[in-house]
Every structure is written in structure tokens, then in C-alpha cells.
Amino acid sequence: MKFCPKCGTLMSIKNVDGKRVWVCPSCGYEEEVNSGQQGISLRTRIQHSAKERLIVVRKDKKMEVLPKTRAICPKCGYTEAYYWLVQTRAADEPPTRFFKCVRCGHVWREYD
Ligand SMILES: [Zn+2]
Ligand SMILES: [Zn+2]
């Protein structure tokens, strides 16, 4: 557990490009999770792999019909990627956009 240093609200963890980040739901403060916190990193890894499995299922079924857009692949630098939307957060928040590089197949997500 960690409390926001700005406003004191209990923070939650989310994954940003494979990095674990504490996020304050109240004021939006973000802080990278210290890798020394073993219990937390274990729990986050499980959540992460569950989400990745979800992506794989989606990818297999929808791969051929995914629209393409201009996006820069963080892995190979290519500028075109497939994209799709997934509701990963609360229902009243906008869905997260996922990208899959047309050239190398790398999958990443966009945060607004
Ligand atoms: Zn805060
Ligand atoms: Zn790529």
C-alpha cells in the first residue's frame, strides 16, 4: 500500500509499457514502483500476464480486420500500426487503445 505524497489518497498500481507505476485516483499523481518491493511486483506480474492473455485471444480473432493508423513502434520505430480498443479500466473511463506494429508485431498500449 502507498499513499499519494500530494493529497494522501490510497494509490493503485497500473502498467505503463511494462513498467509498474503507482497512480493516485484522486489527483493523478504518478510514481514508478520501486523494484525492491517484492510482494507488490509479484501481484502486478500476475495481473499483467492475465491482460496479455486477453490481448492474444483478441489478436488471433481480429488480426485480419484491424484498422491501421500512424503510430511509432517503440521497438523498431516503424510508423504504421494496427490498433484496437479495450475497456481495461472502470466503465465510465475511456477505453485503452492498443497498437500492434505492422512490421515487427510488437504490441503496446496508449495512455491518455
Ligand atoms: Zn493525489
Ligand atoms: Zn515494430
What's the number of extended β-strand segments?
Answer: 7
Mean model confidence by pLDDT = 80
The H/E string reads EEEHEEEE
Distance between the termini: 25 Å
How many distinct helices? 1
Number of domains: 2
* Dominant shape: elongated
Structural class: alpha+beta
What gyration radius follows from the Cα positions, in whole Å? 16 Å
- Bound compounds, please? zinc ion
Which range does the strand content fall in? 25-35%
Biggest sheet strand line-up: 4-5-6-7
Fraction of residues in helix: 10-25%
Low-confidence stretches: 37-41
The biggest sheet amounts to: 4 strands, antiparallel
Name some characteristics of this structure.
4-stranded antiparallel β-sheet, binds zinc ion, 112 residues, 7 strands, 1 helix, alpha+beta, 22% helix, elongated, 3-stranded antiparallel β-sheet, N-terminal domain of TfIIb
